[in-house]
Amino acid sequence: MIHLLTWLFAALFVIVVVGWYLSYTAARLDRLHVRLSGTLAALDARLVRRAEAALELANSGLLDGATSLILAVASVDSLESPDEYGEAREMAESQLTEALDASLSRHTVEALRARGAVGDEHLARIVSSCTRVQLARRFHNDAVTDVRRVRRKWAIRIFRLAGHTPLPRTIEFDDEMPEHLSREPAAG
Q1: Tens digit of pLDDT for each residue in 92-102?
Q2: Angle of helix 65-79 relative to helix 87-103, nearest 10 degrees?
Q3: For the purposes of burial, counting CB atoms within 10 Å of the CB of 69, is it exposed (0-12), middle (13-18) or buried (19 or more)?
Q4: What is the spatial distance between Cα 39 and Cα 58, in angstroms, rounded to a whole number?
């Protein structure tokens, strides 16, 4: 009888430990998915701010007509791109990055800085928004990596703790800051 109770308590202990581990793992996975949603929302907000800053510069009258048009078209395409991330959204964001790089040549940046506070304000918004996009994308991709790492664990796969949630993917697009903006203006 005592031998049977020992086995019963041992089995109960194992069931409690496994249950606790599964509960802990499911809660951790849920927190990671919540973090992933937050980083995606933050990235989306940063991309909208970058497109708005580029559109404001394009409409400011500080750039020549062709440059303004290139920048405005790329900004509008970014703002009107699909909400969900995929090839179309990533292409629109890469095209805005390319338009910013093409529009903000060294000569254009120097001319904007020569305009004083108005030009400096537009450039500062572009620099700030580009930096924030880079950081937000990096944070999001780090969160995706964390979720993927946890979802590879045997317990999550066997007990289907992730449910039917699709495996997240990293967001890849060109988010480099225009070359001439990354440098500080020469002291005059």
Answers
A1: 999 999 999 99
A2: 160
A3: middle
A4: 28
CA 33 to chain centre: 15
CA–CA separation, 146 and 25 (whole Å): 13
Q: What are phi and psi of 177, to 5 degrees?
A: -70, 145
Domain spans of the chain?
38-188
Which 3 state secondary structure label does DSSP give 1? coil
SS3 state at 24: helix
Name the residue among 71, 48, 52, 51 with its Cα closest to residue 61: 71
- Can you tell me the mean pLDDT for 46-54? 98
Tally of helices (H runs) and strands (E runs) in the chain: 6, 0
* Paired tokens of 147: 């979720």
Rounded CA gap, 81 and 141, in Å? 20
3-state helix, strand, coil in the chain (%, to 5): 75, 0, 25
